[in-house]
């Protein structure tokens, strides 16, 4: 291929060769690669994209940001002689004389679904997959749909970002549908070991393991340690009566989730309902049908405001919580205390979201904000926080004998 088109491809190092051989000599549909910083991710992707395009294949190349997509568009273009391919800089497309094409996309924001919809690809490359917002929804939705007609393949590569959805799919390594590889910055012979060792001294062990050894670990800013999360995760929910519900309302009709979490008097999860999107009538009926004598703490911020006021007319014991900086700080602070003192037990879905829920300090305002890391959800964390915040009031209202009027002596 090099001689025929006079293309001088980068020379791969040994670990890159292992991955290239696996890609070109196997029929595995999906390949995931965890790679250390400066380990040579772009070399692998460039070689595969160019070779496949020279063979007439249609390739989508997805990066987290538009600026990254534009950068790699230019980097690949530099490797191609003018008689091999034509470029469209405004659309970030490289068209080959073979009929093959490489089209570059930004994976974040709301544009990917609209721009990639209706296209058909033989290969989708996703660069820095861990940093793609809502990665699971995009792989299952618009990205996956583009591979259907051509029975295409996916190549996903990234430096890890804690234990988010990228971490989950890297565990899929059956050798049939999925193959996984990992290589470190040390595997790149063009980076001096003493330079990498210097960073080992400067960074925390967790940071160095993640950035240079490509080992996913705890999120450095997580609100609670992984061992706390693990020891309080339960596989069977409590059968004791529910004394309080926390309800987080989806912020958008499609991409977000509504979560309803119930806790018993011990703080153990009794119930968890999860609904994608915001269907006002559906949610009103579900919440209305929850037991009347139990507190229902509901996030009434934004889209949930109208639902809350309607619920006040048809349901009992509904408490509306408007989220602002102060409110959220109080909720999450109380949640952290309860988690670290082992006062809450929750299901695996909640545990996964807790592991990717982080605190971020604004260096200018010195305010702390709480959110899930890019690409992950926080609805179950918020519903748990709401339920926990009103747990004591729920216990007092419910009474030791399960009578919601017990505190009044009735």
Give a verbal description of the structure.
The chain is of the alpha/beta class and 410 residues long. The protein has 2 domains: 2-211, 3-Layer(aba) Sandwich (Rossmann fold), CATH 3.40.50.300; 226-408, Nucleotidyltransferase, domain 5 (2-Layer Sandwich), CATH 3.30.420. It has 16 helices and 15 strands. It has helices at residues 2-5, 14-24, 41-54, 66-78, 111-116, 135-146, 165-169, 193-202, 205-211, 226-231, 280-288, 304-314, 325-340, 348-355, 379-389, 391-398, and strands spanning 30-35, 58-63, 85-88, 93-96, 101-106, 123-127, 153-158, 178-183, 244-248, 257-263, 269-276, 295-299, 318-321, 357-361, 368-372. The protein has an 8-stranded mixed sheet with strand order 3-4-5-2-6-7-1-8. A 5-stranded mixed sheet has the order 11-10-9-12-13. A two-stranded antiparallel ribbon has the order 14-15. α2 (14-24) runs parallel beside α3 (41-54), α13 crosses α15 (379-389) and α14 (348-355) crosses α15. The chain is elongated. The model is unreliable at 400-410 (pLDDT under 50).
């Amino acid at each position: 291929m090099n001689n025929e088109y006079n293309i001088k491809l980068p020379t791969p190092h040994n670990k890159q060769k292992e991955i290239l051989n696996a890609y070109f000599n196997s029929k595995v549909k999906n390949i995931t690669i965890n790679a250390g910083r400066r380990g040579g991710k772009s070399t692998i992707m460039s070689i595969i994209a160019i070779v496949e395009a020279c063979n007439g294949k249609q390739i989508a190349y997805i990066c987290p940001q538009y600026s990254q997509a534009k950068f790699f568009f230019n980097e690949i273009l530099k490797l191609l002689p003018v008689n091999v391919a034509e470029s469209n800089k405004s659309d970030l497309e490289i068209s080959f004389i073979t009929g093959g094409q490489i089209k570059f996309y930004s994976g974040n924001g709301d544009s990917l679904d609209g721009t990639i919809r209706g296209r058909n690809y033989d290969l989708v490359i996703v660069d820095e997959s861990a940093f793609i917002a809502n990665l699971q929804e995009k792989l299952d939705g618009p990205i996956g749909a583009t591979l259907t007609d051509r029975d295409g393949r996916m190549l996903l590569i990234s430096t890890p970002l804690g234990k988010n959805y990228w971490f989950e799919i890297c565990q899929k390594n059956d050798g049939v549908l999925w193959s996984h590889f990992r290589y470190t910055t040390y595997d790149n012979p063009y980076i001096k070991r003493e330079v990498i060792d210097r960073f080992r001294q400067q960074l925390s062990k967790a940071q160095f393991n993640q950035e240079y050894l490509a080992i996913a670990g705890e999120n450095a800013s997580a609100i609670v340690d992984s061992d706390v999360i693990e020891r309080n995760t339960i596989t069977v929910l409590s059968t004791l009566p529910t004394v309080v519900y926390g309800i987080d309302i989806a912020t958008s009709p499609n991409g977000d989730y509504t979560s309803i979490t119930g806790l018993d008097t011990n703080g153990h999860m009794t119930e968890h309902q999860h609904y994608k999107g915001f269907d006002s009538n559906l949610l009103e009926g579900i919440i209305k049908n929850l037991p009347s004598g139990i507190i229902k703490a509901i996030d009434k911020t934004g889209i949930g405001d109208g639902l809350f006021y309607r619920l006040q007319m048809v349901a009992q014991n509904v408490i509306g919580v408007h989220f602002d900086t102060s409110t959220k700080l109080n909720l999450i602070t109380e949640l952290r205390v309860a988690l670290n003192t082992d006062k809450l037990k929750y299901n695996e879905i909640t545990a996964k979201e807790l592991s990717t829920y982080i605190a971020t300090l604004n260096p200018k305002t010195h305010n702390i904000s709480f959110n899930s890391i890019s690409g992950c959800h926080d609805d179950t964390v918020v519903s748990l926080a709401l339920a926990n915040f009103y747990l004591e009031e729920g216990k007092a209202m419910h009474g030791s004998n399960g009578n919601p009027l017990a505190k009044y002596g009735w």
